[in-house]
Amino acid sequence: PLPVVAVVGRPNVGKSTLVNRILGRREAVVEEVPGVTRDRVAYDAVWRGRRFTVVDTGGWEQDARGIQAQVAAQAELAIEAADVVLFVVDATVGVTDTDEGVVRVLRRAGKPVVLAANKVDDQRWEAEAATLWSLGLGEPHPVSALHGRGSGDLLDAVLEAL
Ligand code: GDP
Ligand code: MG
C-alpha cells in the first residue's frame, strides 16, 4: 500500500484546491460554499517519482453538529489512517478558534504534520504566513493552491515527512 497523506483543515481554507494542485488535475470538488467535501476521498498522486495516496477531507467545526459532526468524524479518521497530515490554514484569515481546535486534535494524534499556509497568492501575504510559526507545528509553508505558487516546496516537505 502507498503511504497516505491526509489533507485536513477547517472548511474553505482550500484543501480541495490544494489536492487538485497536488494531482495536477481537477478531481477534488472545489466550492465557494464551505463543507462541500462530505467524505474522505482518496487519490493516487506522484511527486519526484514517489507515489502516495492523498486524502481530501471535509473541514470540521469545534461544536460540530449534524453533517459537520460527520465531517469531523471523517477527518479524525483520516488523521488516524494517515502517515503524514497536511494541515491547511488560510493565511489571509489567520488562525481561528476552529483552527486551534484542529491543532489540538493533531497534537493528540502525534502524526507528522506539514503546515500549509494557503492563499499566499503573492508576497504581500508572506508575513501573515510567517505568523503561523506560533502554532508550534514547525515551519509554515506558504502556498497558493489556486495559482501553484510554493506548491513544489510544500510537496518536497511532504516527501521529507513521509
Ligand atoms: P476546502 O473547503 O478547504 O476544500 O476549500 P476549497 O478548495 O473548496 O476552496 C474554497 C475557496 O477558496 C474556493 O473559492 C477556492 O477557489 C478558494 N481558494 C483555494 N485556494 C486558494 C488560493 O490559494 N488563493 C485564493 N485566493 N483562493 C483560494
Ligand atoms: Mg473541500
Automatic annotation (TrEMBL):
GO biological process, one term: ribosome biogenesis
Domain EngA-type G: 3-162
Entry GO MF terms: GTP binding; ribosome binding
Organism domain of life: Bacteria
Residues that bind GTP 1: 9-16, 56-60, 118-121
Keywords noted in UniProt: GTP-binding, Nucleotide-binding, Repeat, Ribosome biogenesis
Family: Belongs to the TRAFAC class TrmE-Era-EngA-EngB-Septin-like GTPase superfamily. EngA (Der) GTPase family.
Assembly behavior: Associates with the 50S ribosomal subunit.
Annotated function: GTPase that plays an essential role in the late steps of ribosome biogenesis.
Protein name per the record: GTPase Der
Organism: Carbonactinospora thermoautotrophica
Residue range from the parent sequence: 64 to 225 of 500
